[in-house]
Design brief:
By secondary structure, the chain is α+β, with helices and mostly antiparallel strands. The protein has 11 helices and 12 strands.
Length: about 325
């Protein structure tokens, strides 16, 4: 079925690109075998409208013209569908290649590969290898959460979503109605920033805590979408990047290397433990819980209490 549709789309595109005058639906139906096999006029009309929308989504500019008799015709002008020359140097091509490699573990791998193929077709020099210049680098952005793809599409299309979300210190998930702004990767975890309609405030959600399916809604946004820089600052603040004080923790030897990289001071305690002074901001309690029994919070007291509450919630399941 996929091959049949691809062939039908290709034939329709060739007809629209090859004609010097607009072709009516009737003429297109007589020219394309798959349309001739349509069982009824209604079936053909539905198939043609879907195909036309698919070609436009792929980037083909289709002109609609009405003749003197009121009949509508369609054509795709070559000038309107010709890409300008691609002028990428070796470094720019290498950057695109690295960007494509980043998504090899995600559902975007096919789209990234297809984009490079289109650049080749549009004039990217054959002697420029977008993968080869930095072949030793193997960047990855792992995406294991099922919520990633529907949320990515919702951010792109500006569609509100509904999902169940379990906070780190909660035993059960709660429903959330969110106007999604953007997805950001921070410390190896994916976060969604958006407007929480129930709480009437901006919120950040970790994708690994979204349970069940993400359901989209057709309603429009009620809150203004901030620029991408502001969104990234919001995610960094909620995820713990912004720190205004310090915390003192004990860390088991040969463990917690990300914490050691953030530490401003390290002191050996003996018996297999070190004492670290690390920046303390929003989200540090959630990060410390990930290290389990290898971390003990000394101070401040509120951070220790938050970590204990999160561990108890995890123990309750």
């Amino acid at each position: 079925m996929a091959i049949a549709k691809a062939e039908r789309l290709m034939n329709l595109a060739l007809c629209l690109l090859g004609t010097r005058r607009p072709l009516s639906k009737r003429e297109l139906r007589d020219s394309i075998e798959a349309y001739l096999e349509a069982g009824s006029d209604d079936s053909f009309n539905r198939m043609f409208e879907r195909d036309k929308d698919d070609l436009r989504e792929l980037g083909l500019v289709i002109e609609t013209v009405e003749n003197l008799d009121g009949e509508v015709g369609y054509r795709a002008g070559r000038d309107s569908n010709r890409l300008p020359p691609i002028t990428l140097d070796a470094e720019e091509a290498a950057a695109l290649g690295l960007a494509a490699k980043v998504w090899q573990q995600a559902r975007l791998a096919g789209a990234a590969s297809g984009a490079l193929q289109k650049l080749r077709a549009a004039g990217l020099p054959e002697d420029v290898d977008p993968y080869g210049a930095h072949g030793a680098l193997e960047p990855r952005i792992p995406v294991h959460e099922a919520a990633f793809e529907p949320l990515m599409l919702a951010c792109r299309d500006r569609r509100p979503v509904v999902f169940d979300y379990r906070k780190a210190n909660a035993a059960r998930p709660e429903p959330r109605q969110v106007e999604p702004w953007a997805l950001e990767c921070w410390r190896g975890h994916w976060y969604l920033a958006g407007w929480d309609r129930d709480r009437r405030a901006e919120r950040v959600f970790r994708l690994s805590r979204i349970t069940g399916k993400v359901r989209s809604r057709s309603a429009s946004y009620t809150a203004e979408v901030p620029d991408v820089v502001t969104v990234r600052e919001t995610v960094a603040s909620w995820a713990g990047e912004t720190a205004d004080r310090s915390a003192l923790i004990r860390l088991r030897k040969d463990a917690g290397y990300p914490l050691r990289a953030k530490a401003s001071a390290v002191r050996e305690l003996g018996d297999g433990w070190d004492e670290l002074e690390i920046p303390y901001g929003h989200g540090l309690d959630a990060w410390l819980v990930e290290f389990g029994p290898d971390v003990v919070v000394v101070e401040p007291a509120e951070l220790r209490a938050d970590v204990v509450d999160r561990l108890r919630a995890v123990a309750k399941g």
